[in-house]
Design brief:
Order of helices and strands: EEEEHEEHHHEEHHEEHEH
Radius of gyration: 26 Å
Structural class: alpha+beta
Distance between the termini: 48 Å
Mean pLDDT: 75
Largest sheet: 5 strands, antiparallel
Strand content: 5-15%
Number of domains: 2
Number of strands: 11
Amino acid sequence: MRIWQTQPKMAPKAVPIIRVEDWCELPETPLVTLYVCGDNELVLDDIFLKIKNLSDNLDRGHYTVVKHQSTGEPDEFSMTECKPDFLKILWECFAHIVDYFADFAVFDKPDMLTIWFDLVDELQQVVRRLPHQHWVEGLPCCGHAEDFTYEYEGVIKLLNNLITPVCPEDQNPLVRANKDITGPSKVDLRGFKAGLKPWEQYLSHGGPGFDVPYDKQIFDKDARMGIAVGEELPEQYIPMGGLAIIARHTKRLRRLAIKIHEQIPDGQKTRTEEKMLEEFDSHAVDLTQPFSTYTSLDGRHKSAEKTQPAPDAPSIPRKYQGLGDPAFIVEHPDLNLIDEAVGCQRGLEEFAHPDGGNNQDFKMLAIRAMPATAAPPDPIIDESEYTDLCDHWPDMKKHFD
């Protein structure tokens, strides 16, 4: 166990920050078990268990489906209100989170910041399941739902101001109120990961992708012909960085598919190379078209539409011509400059959008699930066939060279 004492640089006479670290379990990434700043004392284990137990709290409000199978009447929702004891514990948990970001986050290590952002996500999930949807007509809700929503939005705003205290209005929020908490949303934010900027969300599994206000998006007019009624709102956005990843992996996998097909003896081939590539392309996103459709590997029919943020859209990353730091003289480069430096050292060219348009536009894809016309197909991938795939990776690597 180690005890670290930090004196804030901006205030020499301020109360020192004390962090108690446990080096026993994970020596490479010690766990901070106790934070102390004057009267503010946070015990991580206690707060962790307190938040984790909220979902099983018997005083938590919830919905119950009342079925009427015998009478044939439609099912109904029965609602149990949140009790004051539960709300007291819930707000105490939010207070612990606020205390951490107010006094300790700026002195903490990235590994510990990740844990605290995960606790924020846990609290978001608890709140999302409460019967507080007061804007849904005909759905019962707690009598305190509107007051709770107002206070909850205030806590989220306070957290973001603590995390990015300089000009918070101009910053990308790192904590967002998830859908079904404060009202209907044009983007499904249930998968929004606290601690990541909106344009980084596409890297998180189940995340909403690049979050751009719908009225600040520019779509291809010709592609609008392919949008069906009820399909207006995308379920995920993929920014240009994601397009570069998709394009590169698709190109490499296509080459691998051709190599494998060439190695199959002629007498054992069940289809021609053209047929094989036609099937491959049916499951790949066509980045050269403003609107295209494909079938994902889990059997879902998807559409991909090219879009980009409007010039006046707030907090949108901008591209620039050439390199930002060609001489590598910036002492503290950001992720963009680091990416440029790695690309230069590896001899790679900057990713250009396949449509050949203005590469300075921050282009995206809006991904939608196509309207279901029949029962969803069975997944076309049998994962059991690929359990030993990595055992032969050294033999497969030559196909990428």
